Each structure stands twice: as C-alpha cells, then as structure tokens.
Amino acid sequence: MRLVMMGTGGFAEPTLEALLASKHAVVGLVTQPDRVVGEKRGTTRQVGKGMKEIALERTIPVYQPESINTPEGVAKLMEWKPDLLVVAAYGQILNRDVLSAAPRGGINVHASLLPKYRGAAPIAWAIHHGEKESGVTIIRMSTALDAGDMLMQEAVPIGPDETAGELESRLGPLGSRMALQTIEQLETGTTKGIQQDKSLVTKAPKLTKEMGLIDWSRPAPAVWNQIRSMHPWPSAYCYLHRPSAEPMRLIVFKAHPVVETSLLTCSNSSSESKQDRQDNNLVATKAEAGAVHVEGNALLVRCGEGCLALDEVQPAGKRRMNIIDFLRGNAIPAGSRMGAA
C-alpha cells in the first residue's frame, strides 16, 4: 500500500519508522514547518531524531506547509498518489479535500482512550485530571476533531510519578504497532469501526505557557498532577516570595505529596501546639495556600489540602537542581510563600 505519513514530534516518530520498516511504500511525509527554538511550542515539541530527518535519511519526499488544507497542499498529496494517509500528532484538522486525496482516506493514531481527550494535548490532560490509565486509539479520520469511528484501542496504566513526556515515550511505540495492525486489517477488509459515544467526549486543548502556573489553593495531589502533566513543556512554575527580596521564578520539575503526619510541619504558626494544629484539622484556606516551611533538607509548600514537598527545581537563569542544593544557596526566611508573580 502507498502511504503518506503526516505528523510531528516524538509521539509520531515511532509510527514513521515502523511504516518505513514495513512492506508498505511511504511515498511522502507531511510535517510542520521548521520552527525557531521556543516558537509555537506545544505537546508535539518533544523530539527524538526528528520526523524530517528520519524521512530524509531514507530519501522520502518531505512537505512542510503552514496549512495542508489548501489547493497547493491537496495537489502535492495527489502528486504522491497515496492509497492511505497515516496521521499522528500532526496538529491540523484535515478538510474533506485532503482526506479525499487518498482512496482509503486517513487513519489517525491518537494518544488517548477516545472519546476522552479529543484535541492537541491528550497525554497532558489525562495526567492533569488524575487519570489512572491512558492509551492509544486508531480512528478513521473525519473532518471533525478526533471524532471518527474507532478501529482499534489499547489501554496502559499511568505510573504514579510518570510525566507527560515519559508517558508519550511509551505510547509512541504502542501507536506504531497498532497503526501497522490497522493497515493490515484495512488491506484484508477485516476492519470494524465503532462509533464514539458523544456523551463521553472530553476535550484536551493545546497547552499554553500560562497553564504551567501552579495554583497552590488546589489539593496537593492535584498540584502534583499538574506538575507532571506540564513536563517537558510548558513546565510547571511559580514564584517564591521572600520578605525583602524580589520574587524568584521557579520551575518545578519534581515533587511529591507528603504523608498525613507530616502536614503538622506546614502549620503557619510555629507557636501552635501539636494538639492545637490537630484540632484545627490542618485544612488550608486560600489565604494560607502557598505558605512555605523548611524542615531539614525538605521544602514543603502548603496546598489547599495537604502539602507538597519539592524535589527538583530550577531558579530563573540557573541550572536545574535538587532541593538540597537549592536550599544550600537560598535562604527561606519565615513568612516566605509560593504564588503568582
């Protein structure tokens, strides 16, 4: 079968490599234009070898339009005479003319358990919302966003400390295997599509830098989910406010919720007795959220419920470091707190 691959980034790379190693003929690659570092970043920016580089190594023609949904884009596809379009994290909704350029239309390798998390950042939002599992769904493409019939689906558990980048690295190879299996079924005529349940649809919009700002008024597990979901991009961040010092922007890479008994150390008043703090149930209000407490080599931050211990951070303009090194070089006086700028 003659295939055109359409995709960008680390999730799509295993599928392209699998297609190139198969019996099928990859006659072209459509991928996003080359970007200046930091420009138009998003969930498709985690890159291994690079889609373009993989294709050029095998002398596969590469096309990088700002939009494929133009007469010129359709003409290029028609020139390659594909039987099927294989799409993974391409970042554009394909119009009817594009899908009609291949007699068999297109299949999409989508990194979620559809109909949950339709959109540009399904892996990040699954972690952000505390899902216990994710996976890959192969769908027959339609002109609506991730709305086509499901041809194959496989679930995997999400690790308790797994970041979006780590999960993407696991789902990419899974998607490549499922894509090949689906293509084989299409060839033999054994493919059976299942309509998505519209009542179960949830959205996974494109990430922005602003989504990385930590809201400490949320419960500690929710804040931890946000930190994991924003890695590797846009990264979770906040500002450390210390008396008589400029706010310090901190990227938070790793953290963990503390055990229940450790919440006593997050009290805002060192003069409270242990019994007093227990009587107050240690439930933070929005005013208390973000309060900072140093205990030995631990930096604890009060959340809306519970506390989070920071493990790895990066101050603005400095290297990524563990929390011991950070505390060694930065005094955290009483009254310090985390928050927005």
Approximately how much helix is present in the residues?
Answer: 10-25%
Number of strands: 14
Order of helices and strands: EHEHEHEHEHEEHHEEHEEEEHE
CATH class division of the largest domain: Alpha Beta
Q: What number is the mean pLDDT?
A: 90
Strand-residue proportion: 15-25%
Outline the low-pLDDT stretches: 38-44, 267-284
Number of helices: 9
CATH topology of the largest domain: Rossmann fold
CATH superfamily of the largest domain: Formyl transferase, N-terminal domain
- Structural class based on helices, strands and sheet pairing: alpha/beta
Structural write-up:
With 341 residues, the chain is an alpha/beta fold. The chain has two domains: 199 residues, Formyl transferase, N-terminal domain (Rossmann fold), CATH 3.40.50.170; 131 residues, Formyl transferase, C-terminal domain (Methionyl-tRNA Fmet Formyltransferase, Chain A, domain 2, Roll). The protein is built from nine helices and 14 strands. The strands form two sheets. Strands 3-2-1-4-5-6-7 form a seven-stranded mixed β-sheet, with helices on both faces. Strands 8, 9, 10, 11, 12, 13 and 14 form a seven-stranded antiparallel β-sheet that branches. Strand 1, helix 1 and strand 2 form a beta-alpha-beta unit. Helix 1 runs parallel beside helix 6 and helix 5 runs antiparallel to helix 7. The N and C termini lie far apart (55 Å). About 7% of the residues have low confidence.
